[in-house]
Amino acid sequence: MFIQKIQRDFHPEITYLIGSGNQELSELAPFTADYRKQEGKTTIYICENFVCHNPVRNLDEAIDLLTRLYTGPFSCII
Question: pLDDT per position in the chain (78 positions), as tens?
Fold first, then answer.
């Protein structure tokens, strides 16, 4: 659901990394090793210029933050 909502608009400057809790993502992108679910819920990490914003677990909050930041390259780690 998150990806469908985010991809409604075209944002070629956004990179999405989606992990399911296994080690595959952290092996591919070692910097993601500490990005985990919080309180057992899907957690969204939005990063730009090598710094991540506070993680969010609310889809609307994540979309709002992405909307405000989409002008520069950044990554979204779920």
Answer: 667 776 777 777 777 787 776 678 888 888 888 888 888 888 888 888 888 899 999 888 888 888 788 755 455 555
DSSP string, 4-70: HHHTTS--TTEEEE---SSSHHHHHSGGGTT---BTTB--BEEEETTEEPPPB--HHHHHHHHHHHT
pTM attached to this predicted model = 0.72
Of 36, 41, 39, residue with least CA distance to 52: 36
CB atoms within 10 A of CB 48: 16
| Contact of 11 with 70, CB cutoff 8 Å | yes
Domain ranges, ordered by start, for the chain: 2-77
